[in-house]
């Protein structure tokens, strides 16, 4: 028996792909700021830079995972997959709240929208 692909999970996969690209572009912008350049070659500079790009890779891997789930949505019946999806969703909402608290409204909105889409795609199946 074949399972129909999930359009909402495909949309969620696309949103994570776009987050990965946007996250990378954003990283290039803030690492070019004078205040960040002033701490070049320090531990905070090294950790901040590599951590940011690890975040971009996380979004890309999460995009691939959602795409895989979109091809077989029954995979989300597995408690481990559901737990992964739940952790990702909590991370998105927490990040959105953090951005909002710190006045970075555009990031807060984009990440929050992605969180809502992901929650719908994963938990409304």
Secondary structure tally: strands: 0
Question: Distance N terminus to C terminus?
Answer: 18 Å
What's the helical proportion of residues?
Answer: over 70%
How many structural units, i.e. domains?
A: 1
Strand content: under 5%
Overall average residue pLDDT: 94
List low-pLDDT spans.
none
Key attributes of the depicted protein:
125 residues; mainly alpha; 5 helices; elongated
Brief overview:
This protein has 125 residues and is mostly helical.
Describe this structure in words.
With 125 residues, the chain is mainly α. The protein has one domain. The chain is 79% helix and 0% strand. Helix 1 packs antiparallel against helix 3 and helix 1 (7-30) runs antiparallel to helix 5. The protein is elongated. The model has no long low-confidence stretch (mean pLDDT 94).
Q: Mind sketching the topology for me?
A:
Layout: H1 7-30, H2 34-37, H3 43-71, H4 79-101, H5 105-123
């Amino acid at each position: 028996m074949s399972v129909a692909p999930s359009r909402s999970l495909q949309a969620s996969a696309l949103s994570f792909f776009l987050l990965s690209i946007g996250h990378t572009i954003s990283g290039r912008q803030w690492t070019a700021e004078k205040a960040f350049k002033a701490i070049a070659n320090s531990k905070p500079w090294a950790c901040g830079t590599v951590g940011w790009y690890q975040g971009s890779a996380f979004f890309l891997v999460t995009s691939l995972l959602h795409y895989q789930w979109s091809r077989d949505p029954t995979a989300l019946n597995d408690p481990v997959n559901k737990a992964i999806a739940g952790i990702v969703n909590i991370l998105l909402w927490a990040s959105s709240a953090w951005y909002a608290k710190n006045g970075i409204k555009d990031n807060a909105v984009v990440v929050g929208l992605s969180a809502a889409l992901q929650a719908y795609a994963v938990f409304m199946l």
